[in-house]
Amino acid sequence: MGSEIHDKFGRPLVAITGCGLVTSLGLGKEANWSGLTQGRSGIRGIARFSTDGLRTAIAGTVDFLRPSPFSAPALAIAMAIAAGEEAVIEADIARVGSFPGPLYLATPPAELEWPQRKSLWDEIGESEAAGYQRLLAAARGRKHEDMASLFQFGSVADHLADRFGTRGLPMSVSTACASGATAIQLGVEAIRRRQANAVLCIGTDSSVQIEALIRFILLSALSTRNETPEKASRPFSKDRDGFVMAEGAGALVLEEYASAKARGARVLGFVRGCGEKADDYHRTRSKPDGTAIIGAIRKALLDAGVEPEEIGYVNAHGTSTPENDKMEYLSLKAVLGDHLARTPVSSNKSMIGHTLSAAGAIEAVFSLMTIRTGKLPPTINYDVPDPEIPLDVVPNAARDAAITTVLSNSFGFGGQNVSLVLSSP
Amino acid sequence: MLLKRTEAWITGIGLVSSLGEGVDAHWQELGPHVAPTINVDDAGYAPYSVHPLATVDFSRQIPRISDQRQMDRWQRIGVHAAGLALADAGIAGKPELLDRIDLSIAAGNGERDLVLDEHVLEAMEGHRDLDGTLNHQLATGLRPTLYLGQLSNLLAGNISIVHKAAGSSRTFKGEEMAGVAALEDAVRRLGAGQSELMLVGGALNAERKDLLLNLELGASLLHGGYRSVWARREVGGGMVPGSIGVFLVLEAPGHAADRGAKPYARIAAVASDRSARGPGEAAVTMRSLLEGLAPVVDDDRPLAVLSGASGVEPATSEERQFLQELKDALGPTRTYGSRLGHGIEAHFITGVALAALALSKRSFYPPSDHTESAADTGFACRQILVTSLGHDCGEALGLVEAVEERPRG
Question: Could you tell me if B88 and B118 lie in one domain?
């Protein structure tokens, strides 16, 4: 059934023709790739707000973009625009403001934050009303439409759709820490069913805010190595103690291969397959037997028409939590079997931290760059191997390897598991 | 792209709202043989109104108290409605089907701990060290398990855990358009063979001051007591939120036929777009969406409409303009938000559910009040158009039609 423009199931091949990145390592693919392959960490002490009295005071913040007035959605938009513009310009498909297809967007939760809640509280005096009635009275007192746009989920998508001139209704998706991969999956499916020739997929996250930080602290999910931030994220190490929250955005232009070829586009690689399996076990933990993660990986390979032995490198979810890294290893072992011993598996999160809703998109771009440059990014801070996780994690230093096919994993709270298979042109 | 008729059969409906629980209760309350009743609370949240959820025993769909405790109310409403839909479709308790049913869900923000918010704001007052106070109060006051109640995708997560529905799972966001996206993506996947069996829905708990605060900041709420959607313009317009949980089981016809499942109706098309919302633009966009549906719209009879208008201005006047310009081609228009309130993320899917219910009964809904014409009462529909003009952005239409072969009911 396969042909030059179809996969072996007769579906249109999905080409990647542009991509873009923003992480704590910098703006753009070049700065990011150089940092990543030098084993540099973007994790540092949080400067955006006070962390007095908190167990965790570090994150991979994006501090070089400062939208004014500052808010989490404003930063999410600024990062998405930067990554998206890089992708659209690289794809050279149209003017940045007239993208010829839909937008699939992964965004973080949107909520009124404490600075706004406090300023609303201060707008009127105590005598008028108490508690939420006071906030509501202040809200009635004057127009606050700028504030409203901050926590409407549609508003980030609306901004980006205007900026990029994408077609139709933009779709915002949340599958927790798998959201970025889901945005790509939605785009792949749209192209395969010939709904669109080109799609723009973006994942963006700006969750390093006080309440989100404290919530993750209370779930005991975060590393507390505040003294040495750059050494805090240590996926697959025996002494890993949690993930590090981080910000960033990743963007990809996906195109039906035939139409990319017809317009003479440069094809950077392919998204060959996507797999997804929901876990029904627990809200934050995966099934002890790993069947949901295993299911997602297997489905991705099946969807890609790829045998386990064809996977040359795994871009791991690798969050640096005790639970995730162990389950990810066991699941990879179940699917790849003996081939896993020959397969390098590294975690970008050792350097950029966990970019949450954006991670799947950012790491898909890094996966593509791994293929294109023939260089495996390392897992840094790998000083004390975990004997229960015998993996080639590309310890501490990048190394050369010719890779044609990559598996990229993303798992999230709420039983979300998505795996992608990317390959060379 | 030429529009093709899609083949998404609705084989299960789960619905809870201010009017009751289940499709039969809703037909009892909304059907043609009864005087319209409305369950609205004008006092509890004055000057706003909300439609409170009818009494629902969540333990019938969520038997474990430990599960209920880990959910906020919007999640309990949604998980309950999802359970009703799975049972209605004959899928509940069938592991082979549950393990591969794909979830497509519309969700907004989770619920906040209001007592804690108020406590923190009060504690910060008169404190010089604002940051330190905030950190301390949050770190000692937040309950970690409830954080999960605030993640949008945890409605889906809880449905997987409680009902063991665990194929793929996607949660869409963006107010009314979240519901449109969840349904549109599901219908497209079914149409392209990318799924055979889907659970699509959403939920809103309207009875929350944090929700009302967000809506009031956008100047989107009706003040001064309930009136029906089309009677709000003269008082400045606005939404009356309604607590709603709605889920549909959608199925490829072959899949449904193989297991002997009968459809209420089928979704013939979902179309959406996003206008810039300059004056008149949303109405123009709705019109062009309808023109795009022409290949699948019956041209031999007027089209009945279930309007998803929210009451918020200027969006509701845009919809009025759209409907009035087409009044010769349209049959009776019923605005279900006047009866159930506005369900935001759940609203469009609720309209589709009510359309399917009416089609399965070969009937339609009576007018809510004098703002809707009674001339067409008793109208027998074959197709129903469901509209969604987002209170802030996005425009969409759904076309639901009767299934002649093997109908339900």
Answer: no
Distance from the Cα of A265 to chain B's closest Cα (Å) equals 23
Q: Residue A156's closest CA among A88, A95, A110? A: A110
Q: Residue A53 contacts by C-beta under 8 Å, 6 or more apart in sequence?
A: B132, B135, B136, B139
- The number of distinct structural domains making up chain B is 2
- A144 is annotated as an active-site residue: no
- The active-site residue out of A177, A201, A282, A339 is A177
Catalytic (active site) residue A201: no
Averaged confidence pLDDT in chain B: 94
Q: In chain B, which residues have their Cβ closer than 8 Å to the Cβ of A151?
A: 109, 214
In this predicted structure, the answer to whether residue B118 has a pLDDT above a threshold of 50 is: yes
pLDDT at B1: 41
Q: For residue B34, is pLDDT > 90?
A: no
Kindly give the pairing relationship between strand B330-335 and strand B303-307.
Answer: parallel
Mean pLDDT for the stretch of residues A378-399 = 98
**Residue A284, pLDDT score:** 82
Tell whether the torsion through CA atoms of A130, A132, A136 and A141 is positive or negative: positive
Can you give the residue range of the structural domain that contains B126?
A: 111-150
pLDDT digits (tens, 9 = 90+) for B204-247: 999 999 999 999 999 999 999 999 999 999 999 999 999 999 99
**Final residue belonging to a domain, choices B122, B150, B178:** B150
Q: What are phi and psi of A370, to 5 degrees?
A: -60, -45
What is the DSSP track for B161-209? HHH---S-EEEEESTHHHHHHHHHHHHHHHHTTS-SEEEEEEEE----H
Q: Which residue of A has its CA nearest to B194?
A: A189
| pLDDT of res. B53 | 98
Task: Indicate the CATH number for domain A14-110+152-423.
Answer: 3.40.47.10
B145 and B286 within one domain: no
Give the one of A132, A193, A416 whose C-beta lies nearest to B153's C-beta. Answer: A416
What the block records as the tokens of B74 is 């919007």
Assign B406 a pLDDT band (cuts: 50, 70, 90).
low
Between CA A286 and CA A290, with CA A289 as vertex, the angle to 5 degrees is 50
Residue B67 φ then ψ, to 5°: -65, -45
Task: Give me the residue spans of the domains in chain A.
Answer: 14-110+152-423, 116-148
A317 is catalytic: yes
pLDDT of residue A139: 95
The answer to whether residue A169 scores a pLDDT higher than 50 is yes
* Contact pairs from chain A to chain B, CB under 8 Å: 234
Q: Distances from the Cα of B240 to the Cαs of A91, B116, B226, B237, B345, in angstroms?
A: 46, 26, 7, 10, 14
Q: Tell me, yes or no, whether B230 and B329 share the same domain.
A: yes
Q: What is the C-alpha to C-alpha distance for residues B156 and B160, in angstroms, rounded to an integer?
A: 6
B165 contacts in chain A (CB < 8 Å): 278, 280
Report the range of poorest mean pLDDT among A24-38, B169-183, B191-205, B395-409: B395-409
A28 sits in the region (left: phi over 0; alpha: psi -120 to 50; else beta) called left
Residue A202's identity, in one-letter code, is I
Give yes or no for residue A25 having a pLDDT over 80.
yes
Question: How much is the average pLDDT of B170-194?
Answer: 97
CA closest to B108 among chain A residues: A153
Taking Cα atoms as reference points, which of B216, B221, B315, B242 lies closest to residue B274? B315
Looking at residues B139-148, what average pLDDT do you find?
Answer: 82
Q: Do B392 and A126 touch (CB under 8 A)?
A: no
In a mutational test of the B interface, the residue from A105, A142, A283, A303 whose CB has the highest number of chain B CBs within 10 Å is A283
